[in-house]
Amino acid sequence: xxxxxxxxxxxxxxxxxxxxxxxxxxxxxxxxxxxxxxxxxxxxxxxxxxxxxxxxxxxxxxxxxxxxxxxxxxxxxxxxxxxxxxxxxxxxxxxxxxxxxxxxxxxxxxxxxxxxxxxxxxxxxxxxxxxxxxxxxxxxxxxxxxxxxxxxxxxxxxxxxxxxxxxxxxxxxxxxxxxxxxxxxxxxxxxxxxxxxxxxxxxxxxxxxxxxxxxxxxxxxxxxxxxxxxxxxxxxxxxxxxxxxxxxxxxxxxxxxxxxxxxxxxxxxxxxxxxxxxxxxxxxxxxxxxxxxxxxxxxxxxxxxxxxxxxxxxxxxxxxxxxxxxxxxxxxxxxxxxxxxxxxxxxxxxxxxxxxxxxxxxxxxxxxxxxxxxxxxxxxxxxxxxxxxxxxxxxxxxxxxxxxxxxxxxxxxxxxxxxxxxxxxxxxxxxxxxxxxxxxxxxxxxxxxxxxxxxxxxxxxxxxxxxxxxxxxxxxxxxxxxxxxxxxxxxxxxxxxxxxxxxxxxxxxxxxxxxxxxxxxxxxxxxxxxxxxxxxxxxxxxxxxxxxxxxxxxxxxxxx
Length: 560
Hints:
Layout: E1 2-10, E2 13-19, E3 24-29, H1 35-45, E4 61-69, H2 75-79, E5 88-96, E6 101-105, E7 108-110, H3 112-120, E8 123-126, H4 140-148, H5 151-174, H6 178-197, H7 204-216, H8 218-233, H9 241-253, H10 260-289, H11 294-314, H12 318-336, H13 338-384, E9 391-402, E10 405-414, E11 422-423, H14 424-427, H15 430-446, E12 452-456, H16 464-477, E13 482-486, H17 490-494, E14 498-507, E15 510-517, H18 520-532, H19 538-559
Parallel strand pairs: 3-13, 3-14, 8-12, 12-13
Antiparallel strand pairs: 1-2, 1-4, 4-5, 5-6, 6-7, 9-10, 10-11, 14-15
């Protein structure tokens, strides 16, 4: 459950700490005082989309943190390697004026998407406009699936549907008219022939470049080798470094035995001669191996030009061109034998459609079974919300299979006895929409692990006895879930276990909002204000006290 909400620089709230309790928590206050800002801050820390416009004027950044308890069993935390500390999970989000977001869970950085996924498993916000979602009939099927727990049936169907769509895609790729087929075959045949005539060899373009560089500089290589050989070996008349080293060694050899130093010098000269001799032989081998031929260079240049032209059409490397050749052969083969393949794919598609339809029927049966239960549960909830004459029904119509199945699901209702069932969008008033959505939320919440439900002015369009019924329903829900409710109705506020007042004021020329927890006496005054406005009389105060007392009696009955 939500234990603490800390807010800094969100709209007119400079700083606030709100400590929530179990059960029913209500927030009241004048219109514009900042009640919905508290919900906006809560949405932000749960990872919902927000804007830097919520940052308080003059502040560089906004910051929200929330502490949740009893989160040890959340699977999503283990997926991200997170865990509560001492039974508490801390969510934080910082929004800068430049639009940057810094999100943390348990002190560890997370993305906004990760924060949103974790937040969705902790708390559900039912906003003022959620009732309008009932008017969108495309959402009705999703509501039913959520209630019915048909994940296994839906997954089985989705697998069949995916296989069927893949086969259908392959079949479409084979279908073309005869003239288009002929043009494509001619194009592929030409490209294959051109690439095959080139007799491409993997890696030859790199080897070709090396040979070209060598042959283009052949005269320089030959001149360098011959110059080095002349200096080492000399010419026909002798001379050269080798001859000089040999003669120097002979001159010193006579003194080798006279002194140890001469012996060392002789050994060094022998080593120099051996190294120079090896270098000379290596150069002679290079000279004999190097065969500079202008004709060979012309052949290499011609081949390089051929590869260059092919690369412009078929790929930047020889490997890419060979891959393109394989692709062309495969496509030509597919077109050539398209009729045979199409026939096989048609048979495969028929089998896969049969399997998909079987899975779709199973999914549809599961939905219809769930629909009966949902109808009964919604009727029960509506009776408890002072709508005993309303009939609620779920209509099924079959459609062509798509990713969701074969069912078109529509919620129907009749607001008065004797009236036929019609789409909700045609007959429901604003107050009825709010109560139907509340009923649906309550039913769906029973099967969800979310511990906290937030209702932002769900009392819109509701008053009198209906308001009392809504208050009683929220009190019932708060026995098994933590409930946070922003409201203008004294009936709802009186039913709260914990009551907060949101007040707006001025300080040093700036508007600020304060959130205060009310005691029994302050609650009575706040309920009197909600009932009588600016004029609060003794009779109104007495009525407020009666509301609180009646609510306390009702909650005692719930406990029993």
